[in-house]
Structures are given as C-alpha cells and as structure tokens.
Design brief:
- The complex is a heterodimer of chains A (325) and B (294).
- With 325 residues, chain A is an all-alpha fold.
- Chain A has 14 helices and four strands.
- Chain A has one domain.
- By secondary structure, chain B is mostly helical.
- Chain B has one domain.
- Chain B is 70% helix and 3% strand.
- Chain B contains eleven helices and four strands; from the N terminus they run ββααααββααααααα.
- Chain B has a two-stranded antiparallel sheet. In chain B, strands 3-4 form a two-stranded antiparallel sheet.
- In chain B, a hairpin with a 2-residue loop joins β1 and β2.
- The termini of chain B are far apart.
- The chains are: A mainly alpha (325), B mainly alpha (294).
- Chains A and B meet through α6, α11 and α13 of A and α4, α9 and α11 of B.
C-alpha cells in the first residue's frame, strides 16, 4: 500500500539527523511549556496538554500502525469516568484514581481491539466508531455516570498526599509531568524494535506476515497501548476539570482527535501536539461562535485531506530536510 | 387484551411497526453506502448529512415554494444528488489514487461543514413537516391500526430497494457498473466513460439518502442533527451485513430494524445498543459480515 500519509518514512532517511532534530525539538517544546503558564491561562494549557497526549496516543495507532480508529473517545471518556468515580466516590488518592481510569481504558482497549482488528481499513474505522457509540449509550444510561450532568465536583486531591493540586499552577506542572512521561513513552515505543515491526506492518502487512510476524498481535498491542495512553489523557483531564462528562465519549470527540493528528501531521513525533494546541485554541477562542467551530473544523478536514496531507509538522520537517541538501 | 410472552399484542405490533420503519431507513441508507462503496471504494460519511439535507429541502419546498410532499419525492433526490455529484467531481475524484481512509476523512469533514451550517442557520430545534393529506389516517387490520403513511414508507422503500437490486444485478447498465467495480481500467478500455459512471453512481447513492430524508420528514422532526446519530447505526448495519451484496444489505437493514423494535418491547434498556452488540457477535463469528465475501 503506497500512502503519502507517511512522508517521514519514505523521505531520505538519516537517523542521526532525525535523533538530533527530535532531541532539540523536545527540549524546545518542554521549555515553551514550562514558561507558558506565565503568559497563558493555565487551565486552558492543561486542556491542550490533555488533548495533546490524547492525540499522541492516537497517532501511535494511526501514524505508526496505519490503523484509523474512529472511536478513540471511548477510551478518553471511560477513563475519565472511572478516574472521577474512584476519586470522588471511592476516595482514591489522585495518582491511583488516574491509574484506575487508565486501567479501565486498557481493558476496554483490549476487548475493542480484539473485535476491531478482525477487519481492516474502512471497516476498522466503522467498527471502532460503532463500539464507541455503544460506550456512549452505556455512559448515558448507567446509574453512576450522572447521565447528562456527568460526574461533577471531583476532588483533585494531593500529589503523594502532600502537595495540594487545587492550585492551578501546581496542577499544571503535574499535568505537564504526566504529558512528558506519556510523550517520551510513545517516543520510546516508536523507536523500539517493536515500533519498527509496527511500521513494517503499516507499510506492507503481507510482507510482514511472510517474514513470520504474527501481525494481528502487534496490531492488538498497538491498539491497547494507544487506548491506555488515551485513557491516561482522559483520566488526567477529568482530574483537571473535576468533571467527567458525556462530551468526552461523544463521537465528535473521536473526530476531533483525528483532526488534531491530521492537521499536526500523521506519523510525525510532534505533529499531534501542534495539532492539539491549534484545535484547542480554536475551540477556546471561538467558543462564542457556536456552530462556526464545527464548520471550521470541517473545512480544516477538507483542506488537510485535499491539499495539506503532511500536516503542519510534516511540512516543517520536509522543509528542514530540503534545506539541509 | 391478548398477550404474547406477557407483552400486550398492541405494544408488540406497534414496536414491530416502528422497527420496520427504522429498518426501511437502515436499508435505504446502507444500500446507498454499499452502491457508493462498490464503485468508489469510499465510505460516504456525508451520508447522514445528505439524508438530513433531503429532509430540509423537502421542508423548504413546502414552505418557500409551496410544493408538497409528492413534488419533494421527485425534486429532492435530484437536487441533493446533484450537489453530491458536484462534491464528487470537485473533491472525491482527487482521492481515488490515495488510501481509502482519506475518502472517509474528507466526507467526515464535509458532514461537519453541512451539519454545522444547518445548525448555525436553523438551531438545534426540529422543524415540523406535515404529513401528505392522502396518507393521513390508518388502516384497521383487526389486531392493530396501521397508519397509512408508515405503510407507505415501508412499502415504497421495499420497492426502491428491490428496484435498485434489479437495476444493478439484472440490467445492462448494472452489468457495466459491476464490471467497473471489478476492473475499471478494462471497462474504460471498452469505451465506457467510467469517471462519469462514478459521478452518477455517487449522485445516485446520495439521492437515495435524500429520498430517505423525505420519507423521514413527516415522521421525525426536521433537525440538523437527525443524520449523525443515524449514520453510526447504519455503519454498524453495514458491518453486520457486509457490503458485498445489495440484497444482503436490504435484508440486514430491515432485519435489524425489527430486532431493535423487539428489543424495545422486551428489554428497553438495551434498545439503543442492541445493534452494536449484534455487530460485536457477528465480528466474532463471521468477521466478513453475514453477506460479505472475503
């Protein structure tokens, strides 16, 4: 399958340059994020960071596994519900509540993945979308989720029982730490031998099978990892906003994460982060315009697919590469 | 009052009827998706939005142009189908050489644009569309009352589905279509204008969705979000049926509508999710779908 979605893999390959680019990129990104709350409202930044982690997790599956899930909101949302429930009702400490949410998403990811990887391509997308809709209806009707109201007033708690997280700035650095850990983990996964096999499956599954790889296991593992990290983002988001609601399990959230990844650049390391910040700021600053946000998102989708398939970071990387020659 | 399995027959037949109505929409929409997918290899995410457009155009025709239901049945599929053909020419046709997923993403974006525009213009509240006068009232079948309009919807969508099946499987035009599905370049070499055929096919599928929208307008409220939740269920229907066979998607559509209706009687909590559960079971037992080929 030839696919221009993966420009990074097909362009001239120079691991040493790539490693340096990624290292510098990460340091710059981290430096900006450390200083950012001095300038920008921390709660908005936290939301963007949660979306960024969510999009990175999604990109692990789409950009590096070639699997388009249209139901990733089910992991974000269910992790949020479980984290909120365990922190509020069961009285778990913050870290444990987040891990509980992440665990729930992992289990859900395992079963959803088992079903979804039985089909490929477009069917895979439709199946994940349908499964996510099932989770949405469950969340709408289940007694503990609070239906339309969601789970409100979730306590943020204290980090390690000592540092109070109700201060937004403290919470911001807590979220930044979680994001960085998730980001680095994904980076590590992509560049491990496992990640190489995953990319091989993405580029040519029959050949990977003929080389003796049990491709369905690799794909399932990618799906579960992606679900778990999406869950980490969802659980963190629930703690930040002290709320778990239906928005996070709705199909439009699944669409949004696709949009963030597409806009930022599928299969690039930093793309999803860039895409998430753009989409989150669009929603934040255009929120008064109501339906125009949906229209704008649709237009971005169309433009990206027709003319801008490499996304922001994909274009930037291509430009940097060209300049070196 | 008589009962079956502890459920009053009146309620049972009532839900069965609603199931058949929903089933006609599932069948019409999944049929359109299957026809489009066969030739274009694209899953048309805009299908739900085009169904919604169908209902809205029928509403405009009635309120702005004074053209009633019967006119709408003819004009709406043609008009919305024409917008579909423009979309195909301007956008979709650029994607055929790429991965199929791009078609899904593009049509998803278009669905957002269309739905957002209608929501911006008309808000989320539904608009009423009155039933055509010839079809008000009901037949008394002895054991239940069958509203005329519902009988009309079920009957005519059956006729349309079977007509589409006949056209594709039994006519010369259908033979070209099936040949182009198998091998477009060979068919083109025989002098058939395949790109135009693709455009018309997309227009036809979109027209079917718009027609379903007209059927739906008097039953449901005409509202911008009427398509998006429906289309997800239709996707599940398509996964269950498999897109290999036209007749298969019709049978699956009606069958699942009935199953959903029965679930509403016997276990109402699951009525929203039963189709997704069936999808999961089908995927475990027969991943290619009930009527799909490997």
């Amino acid at each position: 399958m030839t696919d221009p979605a993966k420009p990074v893999a097909t362009a001239a390959h120079d691991p040493a340059w790539e490693a340096r680019y990624h290292r510098i990129g990460f340091i710059v990104m981290l430096a900006i994020l450390v200083v950012a709350p001095m300038v920008v409202y921390p709660v908005f930044l936290m939301k963007a960071l949660c979306f960024a982690l969510f999009a990175c997790a999604f990109n692990l599956l789409l950009g590096f596994g070639g699997l388009l899930s249209f139901g990733h909101a089910m992991f974000l949302g269910s992790a949020g519900y479980l984290a909120a429930q365990s922190a509020k009702v069961w009285g778990f400490p913050t870290e444990l509540a987040i891990l509980t949410g992440m665990g729930a998403a992992t289990v859900l990811g395992f079963f959803a993945g088992l079903l979804a990887i039985r089909r490929q391509g477009i069917y895979f997308a439709m199946i994940t979308l349908a499964l996510a809709q099932m989770v949405f209806f469950y969340a709408l009707q289940a007694p503990f989720t609070g239906g339309e109201d969601g789970l409100q007033g979730v306590p943020r708690g204290k980090f390690l029982g000592m540092i109070d997280l109700h201060d937004n700035l403290v919470m911001y650095y807590f979220v930044l730490a979680i994001f960085s850990a998730g980001f680095l983990l994904i980076y590590r996964i992509i560049h491990s031998p496992y990640g190489q096999v995953l990319k091989a499956i993405r580029d040519n599954e029959p050949r990977a099978i003929s080389l003796g790889y049990r491709t369905e296991r690799f794909k399932l593992a990618a799906f579960v990892l992606s679900a778990a990290l999406a869950g980490l983002a969802g659980a963190t988001k629930a703690m930040v906003f002290q709320l778990a609601s239906l928005t996070d399990v709705h199909w439009s959230m699944s669409g949004e994460v696709v949009l963030m990844t597409l806009l930022g650049g599928m299969g690039t390391v930093f793309g999803p982060v860039a895409g998430a910040f753009v989409i989150a700021s669009m929603e934040h600053y255009l929120s008064d315009l109501g339906a125009w946000v949906t229209i704008a998102q649709g237009i971005i989708f169309v433009v990206c697919v027709l003319a801008f398939r490499r996304g922001i970071m994909g274009e930037l990387e291509a430009w940097l590469r060209n300049r070196r020659r | 009052m008589s009962e079956i399995f502890g459920v009053p027959t009146q309620a049972l037949f009532g839900q069965l009827l609603i199931g058949l109505i929903n089933g006609s929409f599932y069948a019409l929409l999944s049929l359109g998706l299957a026809v489009i997918f066969g030739l274009l290899n694209i899953i048309n995410f805009t299908h739900g939005a085009q169904y919604m457009m169908g209902a809205f155009v029928a509403y405009f025709l009635a309120h702005k142009a004074g053209l009633g239901y019967w006119w709408a049945l003819v004009i709406v599929p043609l008009a919305v189908g024409a917008t579909g053909m423009v979309i195909e020419r301007l956008m979709l046709s650029r994607l055929y050489k790429l991965d199929h997923l791009y078609g899904l993403l593009l049509t998803f974006g278009l669905a957002l644009i269309i739905e957002g525009s209608f929501r911006h213009q008309f808000g989320s509240a539904g608009l009423p569309y009155s039933m055509p006068e010839d079809l008000t009232g009901a037949f008394n079948l002895g054991f239940m009352f069958l509203p005329k309009y519902r009988a009309w919807v079920i009957g005519s969508s059956l006729v349309i589905c079977l007509g589409t099946w006949f056209m594709i499987e039994r006519t010369k035009l259908g033979a070209y279509l099936r040949a182009a599905t198998e091998n477009p370049s060979l068919v083109q070499a025989f002098g058939v204008n395949v790109p135009r055929m693709i455009t018309l096919t997309y227009g036809f599928g979109v027209g079917l969705a718009a027609l379903a929208g007209v059927f739906a307008a008097p039953i449901y409220q005409v509202a911008p979000q009427m398509g998006s939740s429906l289309i997800i269920v239709v996707f599940a229907v398509v996964v269950i049926g498999g897109m290999g066979s036209i007749l298969g998607s019709v049978i699956t559509g009606f069958g699942l509508g009935v199953v959903e209706g029965l679930t509403k009687v016997f276990y109402p909590e699951a009525s929203n999710t039963v189709i997704f559960v069936i999808m999961a079971i089908v995927l475990m037992i027969r991943p290619q779908g009930l009527f799909g080929q490997r």
